[in-house]
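Recall that a protein's primary structure is simply its ordered list of amino acids. Everything else, from secondary elements to tertiary packing, is in principle encoded there. The following example makes that idea concrete.
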Amino acid sequence: MSKLRTKIDSLLWCDVELDLISTTIMILYNGSVIVEEPPIVAIEPNTQKVLAIGKEAMQYDGGKIVQVYFNGANSEEYNTLDIGSVFIRELLCKARETKRLRGLFYRLAIPLPSYITHYQQRVIESILEKTGVPKYSIVHR
């Protein structure tokens, strides 16, 4: 029974690492970077809809380019939780498109350095909850 449960678990869940604390945001799987994007989005100014993320946002014509802050800093015009959750959701879609991930759902491990404050960690957790990620764990380095 245990082997069957392990097999089913491996078909349903994919363990990935999401590195949010660097100049580029990365998704790693089995120690390899599969998606790496700068933390920026292109936003339609009138509707505040996210039009593109990462490198595509840098080349996007017609939208306002906004930095995504995962440390709790707020853009004066845009909600960090909203654009942060859209950014992560789109990043996970890009990871799935690489065809290198297995499983229907993601279990995310988010490594955070020891200098992260409780407030900053709570902002990251709120973004992940808003994203709809069913399972994640914060790992302090």
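The first helix runs from residue 2 to 12. The domain at 12-36+70-140 is CATH 3.30.420.40 (Nucleotidyltransferase; domain 5).
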